[in-house]
Amino acid sequence: MNLDFTEEHLMIRDAARDFAQNTLLAGVIHRDETQSFPKEEIKQLASLGLMGMMVDPKYGGSGMDTISYVLAMEEISKVDASTSVVMSVNNSLVCWGIETFGTEEQKKKYLVPLAKGEIIGAFCLSEPEAGSDATSQKTTAIDRGDYYLLNGTKNWITNGSTASVYLVIAQTNIDKKHKGINAFIVEKDMDGFVIGPKENKLGIRGSDTHSLMFTDVKVPKENRIGEDGFGFSFAMKTLSGGRIGIAAQALGIASGAYELALKYSKERKAFGKEIYNHQAISFKLADMATEIDAARLLCLKAAWLKDNHQNYDRASAMAKVYASEVAMRVTTEAVQVHGGYGFVKEYHVERLMRDAKITQIYEGTSEIQRIVISRSILKD
Ligand code: CAA
Known about the structure:
By secondary structure, the protein is an alpha+beta fold. 53% of the residues lie in helices and 15% in strands. It has ten helices and ten strands. It has helices at 7-34, 39-47, 66-79, 81-101, 104-116, 231-267, 279-307, 313-338, 349-358, 366-378, and strands at residues 121-124, 140-143, 147-158, 165-171, 181-187, 193-198, 209-220, 224-225, 269-270, 273-274. A hairpin with a 3-residue loop joins β2 (140-143) and β3. α4 packs antiparallel against α5 (104-116) and α8 runs antiparallel to α10. The longest helix has 37 residues, at 231-267. The model has no long low-confidence stretch (mean pLDDT 97). Bound molecules: acetoacetyl-coenzyme A. Acetoacetyl-coenzyme A is lined by residues 89, 123, 125-126, 131-132, 134-135, 157-158, 178, 232-233, 236-237, 239-240, 313, 362-364, 368, 371-372.
């Protein structure tokens, strides 16, 4: 693995950092408090080419690699994880899924506007009774000749109301279990598709999370992704790459909190000196820096494997489980370093701590990542 970044990598990282610090930061507390979706900010992300970063330019994307994606995700997430989850779902679940497995027609119709950021996508796998246990889908898609009849409910869907295009996983033939599952491209204005109320969440409050209800939605046959029965495999492969994005998000949340804690520790005085000069604080910062570096290396390794067409299932699960646990530890310690100030909103670290929690839950909980890793180890 080559650890040297190219000029292009550094340019993308700096552009994302500049956007995060100069555009996202100003309104982030307000968006968190009022649960406001970063609509204008997503438009600007799109104009920077960050909504379809890895998509081939012939489909409207920026043609960048996964390393660039990790670098950009870290910078955006340092400031606003609500914005970075929108970016992550659109890039690695929706765009990647359609570009890798979609037909030419699907790419022209859906991928091009998604990659340009003209519209946003959502990935719909979780259900009220099927989150971790993804094979137990209750949503059904019954084959009716030239269309599928879609019925069921999806839960916790990121970009639930702001998306225009939804990748929906559903059971087509229950007897075949996971081999009877399919993935479909569903449009927002299809009859029978209803968006439920917005969830009031602990963290990533600027992103919109909804349940979705499908009642006799007619999904044209040409909107199925891949061969009949490919849906579960599609979801697993797509999530494997998605986990690199969420790992990078967790990394960014951790490094954002660490940078704030470091800065504060050099300014704040107690017992006659800057608190950084007290070992109780400097050792915390040393641990944070060490764990963040380790998380970053895992993220970059998973990205490098993906860019070099090697299997990255284990690496992405390792990056996600480790980075998300680091995010939780580092943000909690960052609040501690700030003392009472850490508990109030103006200092940002309490929000980062709340945002960190979701990285241990979505795109597979920490327990799911350990299942993926331990099964992979057994095969060695
Ligand atoms: N690539 C391709 N195929 C895969 C695969 C992968 N990475 N992982 C598993 N499969 C295949 C297996 O090979 C198997 O196929 P065969 O029977 O043909 O061999 C099939 O899938 C079933 O695999 P398992 O027996 O391992 O299935 P399982 O029921 O034990 O579940 C699991 C495995 C890892 C627990 C899986 O269910 C899982 O990842 N669950 C978590 C789902 C998840 O991440 N949900 C998050 C929702 S999305 C989200 O959060 C998005 C958002 O809004 C931010």
